[in-house]
Design goal:
elongated; 4 helices; DUF983; 156 residues; transmembrane; membrane; mainly alpha; FdhE-like_sf; transmembrane helix
């Protein structure tokens, strides 16, 4: 017969095959969560929206980026690993596409309607293009990382 009594050391440590997803139960040393939830379905649109807002696609409360365009290694709240998500040139292409489709018709409408001086027109639209690009670039990167997380597209 096997001895089924547990010692104080055995009771203090949970079994190695038990994994928690509770943020409060995450390790305090900052180690990322390496649990694989391969069977769980992930919704893409909530993850994309969380990424667009600059939040972790898993929990929605931790920051996704550690600087303007650098993805964190892991979420500080839920410990979800994020280091393997790469957006590469996707956010830049989408930014150019969106800014071009907004500013080109606006430029045409303003020029045809009011005929401003060329220097004023180029100044206003240059500032508008730069501002809109700087606003959209990190948000689109977060959206792409959120989409990759939802579809489990880790590293290429």
């Amino acid at each position: 017969m096997q001895d089924t009594t547990t010692t104080r050391e055995d009771a203090a440590e949970p079994p190695s095959d038990v994994r928690t997803t509770d943020p409060a139960a995450a390790p305090l040393d900052g180690a990322p969560d390496t649990s694989a939830d391969a069977g769980e379905e992930r919704d893409a649109w909530p993850a994309v929206w969380r990424g667009f807002r600059g939040r972790c696609p898993n929990c929605g409360s931790g920051p996704l980026l550690r600087s303007y365009l650098k993805v964190r290694d892991h979420c500080p709240v839920c410990r979800q690993e994020l280091h393997h998500n790469r957006a590469d040139d996707g956010p830049a292409y989408l930014t150019i596409l969106i800014v071009g489709h907004i500013m080109a018709p606006a430029l045409h409408i303003v020029f045809v309607t009011w005929r401003p001086e060329p220097l004023i027109l180029i100044t206003i639209f240059s500032i508008g293009c730069i501002g809109l690009s700087l606003y959209l670039l990190p948000r689109l990167k977060g959206a792409i990382v959120g989409f990759q997380w939802a579809r489990r597209m880790y590293g290429f």
